[in-house]
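Hi P.,

Sorry for the delay on this. The queue was packed all week, but I finally got your sequence through. Input first:
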Amino acid sequence: MEKIVAQGLLYDFYGELLTKHQQEIYESVVYDNLSLGEIAEAEGISRQAVHDIVKRCDRTLQGYEEKLRLIDRFMSIKDKISQIRELSVQYEESDPKDWNTYGARIRELSERIMQEL
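Then the structure:
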């Protein structure tokens, strides 16, 4: 996964657990695409301090994901929902004699989603 996308996902799920100062700086890097120098100037701190804060936030957010696995579960459930959607389209276009097969697969996927929740 591209780094900026991964950072955005981590922040979306766990950003509220960072301090306000960390949130502001991290958002400036990830969402506003500002350089470390631009952020340092705006915050009145060194470029190195901004770099350290961003690295610390990355480690902190990744640590939350390693422990809680919310993004992994979200992506897995999203994939299963996509499969269910695809199966429902195939079901609508299929011969009635095949409906049991689609129903069984949809039930199986929905049960796996429920187990993940």
